[in-house]
Amino acid sequence: MRIEHIAIWAKDIDQVCEFYRKYFGGVVQPLYHNPAKQFTSRFVTFESGARLEIMHRPDIEGNAETVGTLRMFAIGKPIATLIASVIKHTSMFCDSRLIRFHVKHSQTEDATKNSFFGISEVQQVAVAQATANMMAGVAEHLGFAHISFSVGSKEEVDRLTQKMSEDGIAIVGEPRTTGDGYYESVVLDPEGNRIEITV
Predict the structure, then answer these.
(1) pLDDT tens readout for residues 69-118
(2) Among 68, 104, 183, 193, which residue carries the largest CB count within 10 Å?
(3) Are 77 and 125 in contact (CB under 8 A)?
(4) pTM across the whole model
(5) HSE on the CB side for 123, CA within 13 Å?
(6) Rounded CA gap, 81 and 39, in Å?
């Protein structure tokens, strides 16, 4: 007996599938669509182990909706204003120590000579999305908690985590050895699902 597949509801099937293809070598299967039920899905298969079924139905919403809402705050605002907007428009408590911004920034002055750090439009969108995903991932809940990928070595855990960090993926747990002996990091996929990367 084995686990055949794990299913994930998603707002954007292709974006989620691309995450698992790019970082974990998944093979994205053809799109299935049932117009009567407004149901769409794709399977992602791996070299071994269970498949992922990435599913979408327009009446099911979740973390990705928060991400989309926050994007409107990401245009032409300094970092401090952006963070304030993110916190104001979410109902979750956020530990500021957990927020990491993987952006380039430069110090500028406004017309009144007030100095602030600004970032570009594209970088700000990345910040809003990473922050929203981070906040969604901090809160624990009953039920399925995470998916774990074995990548073969501590060096590969470090390399893949660093690559994701450089790409703006939310890192919620840096590589470390846990109390029960696992060497792992924890990241969030584009819609806030927790992923453990382990040896």
Answers:
(1) 333 333 444 444 555 544 444 433 333 333 444 444 445 555 555 544 44
(2) 193
(3) no
(4) 0.66
(5) 15
(6) 38
